[in-house]
Request: fold
Amino acid sequence: MKDNTCNEFQATVSQCLVRHKSIIDIITKIQETAGRVNRAVAKSVTSCGCLEVNAKKQQFPANISLQELTQFMETHLKGDLCENCQEVLEQEIGNHLFYLAALCNILGLSLNDIISKENEKLSTLGIYNLS
Reply:
């Protein structure tokens, strides 16, 4: 992602946010849009069927290193998003990003800086980041 993409997006959001400019509106919209993302994933499983969840206890050998652990961990997800579900999820994630950018704007934060700092932390700590 280009450095300017986040900055441009955040600037565009600041020009477009009219109705929900209150901090209270923004934080509740973030919660709402997160729920809509979750719901869209669930609908891909329950209504469309393009995705399937097969969740079970994660199985891995007892005497492995933390680095080796990722080889044994599963996503519990089978299938691929169909074109329609992908479109819906992209729209819902986009709406969520809109309100995250709006929150950054109202708090005087840079979304680009936040992403860069998080990326640097993840790159430095790797699997030891505890996320």
The chain has five helices and two strands. Helices lie at 3-16, 23-48, 66-69, 83-107, 111-125. Residues 26 and 75 are 31 Å apart (CA to CA). Strands lie at 51-53, 77-79.
